[in-house]
Structures are given as structure tokens and as C-alpha cells.
Amino acid sequence: MAFKKLLASLGAGGASVETVLTEVNVVPGGVVQGEVRIQGGSVPQQIEGLSVGLQAKVEVESGDQEYKQDVEFTKVRLGGAFEVQAGAVHTVPFGLEIPWETPVTVIDGQPLRGMHIGVTTELAIARAVDSGDLDPINVHPLPAQKAILDAFLQLGFRFKNADLERGHIRGTRQRLPFYQEVEFYPPARYQGLSQVELSFVADENAMDVVLEMDKKPGLFSEGSDTFRSFQVGLHDYQNTDWAAYLNQWLAAVGSKRNWF
Fold it and tell me: I need a labelling partner for 72 at 20 to 30 A (CA). Which of 135, 161, 239, 245 fits?
């Protein structure tokens, strides 16, 4: 990766910065490790601040319009002020914790279309700030999340799309300002059903699993038989046959509505 240039306002011969990740494959609740390398320019420069964070591209609804917005959802300052000598390389190692709610971006080695999450680096010199580029990371599902995803695949569902929505799912442990929706196409035997949407909202102990069939405009319609939210422990998820659980719910709703 080439060095990232600072803002032109810093003047010719200024420092440049590069972020190198030790491992791009992580899981929610884990840590992404790396180092920031600052290459000194032609003169000594005082670094006022250095920080790294996580950023996601989120879909925002405003009236009748939708647009994408970059949202930084965690940030860590790396030490205090320091000076970089001309031509010197200053290396700052870091470990950035991955929030438990961080969306999944890879399933079984396959990237989920629509997911853009990565590490941002922010360097401040003389009251100017350069945020640099996004260094992508691959967020793999936790074992409990993988069990639910595998259950859909066992039932014959196919992945359709994934996106991040700004807002909150009521009744969950959500803390981040956005949530992920993973959409599936149903197999032929669930005729009358166009899609199912899945969301995970996790913490260090358990996760809320939110399911909805054929979502209508607006947030989730709690109370409807096409909406289901339940809790799964991160350490005791193996005690349930999730494919059977999901099939039972789908069959109950389908028979009530004469879908299949």
C-alpha cells in the first residue's frame, strides 16, 4: 500500500502516513492489530494527535430519499503528541477492539455484497487533520451467528443481499447507531414468501436474533406473526436444532396465511 499523503495545507515536504494491518480477518468481540507508520518529511513536524477507528458505509433514509453515509462507530487515540524528525519513520502499534455488534462481512469465505467496513486512521498536525483511506477488514460470524446462518442454508435459502440501516431495532440490546440486515431468497417449498431478513444484535454474553418476512416500509412491525425476535446465548447455542426451529416458525405463519 502506498504512503497516504497529508492535506496540501500542511505544505510541501510534509509527513505521510500508512496503516498496516497484521491480520484483516476478525470476529465481533475480537481485536484487529496493526501499526501506523509515519514517514517524516523534509523538516521536523509536531504530531498533535493520532487515532484509529472503525468505519461503515450505512444507508440512511430521509423523507423519500435514501443515501449512503460513512459512519465511524469506534475510535481510539494512540498516545499523546510527539515529534517526527525529518526523514525518520515513527511506528505506532495498536490493537483496536471490534464491537460485538459489528456487522458480518464474510460468510464461508464469501464477501457479502453491500458491506464496506474498515479501519480509518486520523493524523493531526498543526490543527489540520487527514483521515486517510479505509483499510478494509473481513468480519466473520461468531459460532452462534454461523449456526443460524447455516440453518437457513440447510433449509434451502439463498443469500440475496446485505445492507446497513441507520436506526435502532426496538427491544434489542443495540448500542450502535445502525444495524445489519441479511436478506435471503426462500426455497420453492415456501411459496408465497418473497424473502426473509435476518439481523444480529450481540454483546459479550448473548445476541438478539431478529427475523422478518416480507418487510414493509418503515422499521420492524413488532407484534406481527411475520416478525420474530429471540435470544441466543453465545456459549449454549448448540442445544437447539435451529433449522427445525426456523422451519416450524415459517410453516406456522405460512399455513395461517395459506401461503403453502
Answer: 161
Angle between helices 242-256 and 143-154 (to 10 degrees): 50
Helix (H) or strand (E) holding 147: helix 143-154
Query: Is the separation of the CB atoms in 122 and 133 below 8 Å?
Result: no
DSSP string, 240-259: S-HHHHHHHHHHHHHHHTT-
Q: Which residue matches cell numbers 444507508?
A: 59
Q: Are strands 110-111 and 227-233 parallel, antiparallel or unpaired?
A: unpaired
pLDDT band for 224, please (50, 70, 90 cuts).
low
Range list of β-strands (E), the chain: 4-5, 16-21, 25-26, 31-39, 45-62, 65-77, 82-84, 89-97, 106-107, 110-111, 117-125, 128-130, 135-136, 138-139, 158-166, 178-185, 196-202, 206-213, 227-233
Q: Is 22's pLDDT higher than 80?
A: yes
CA–CA gap between residue 132 and residue 123 (Å, rounded): 8
The Cα 46–Cα 214 span in angstroms is 55
Instruction: Quote the distance between the C-alpha of residue 118 and its chain's center.
Output: 8
Q: Do residues 162 and 114 lie in contact, with contact meaning Cβ atoms separated by under 8 Å? A: yes
Q: How many beta carbons lie within 10 A of that of residue 179, not counting itself?
A: 23
What cell was used for 248? 416450524
**In 131-152, which positions are buried (b, 16+ CB within 10 angstroms) versus exposed (e)?**
bbebbebbbbbbebbbbbbebb
Kindly give the pairing relationship between strand 4-5 and strand 135-136: unpaired
Cell readout for 2 is 502506498
User: Of 258 and 106, which is predicted with more confidence?
Assistant: 106
For the segment 149-170, what is each residue's pLDDT rounded down to a tens digit? 999 999 999 999 999 999 999 9
Task: Please say if the pLDDT value at position 109 is more than 50.
Answer: yes
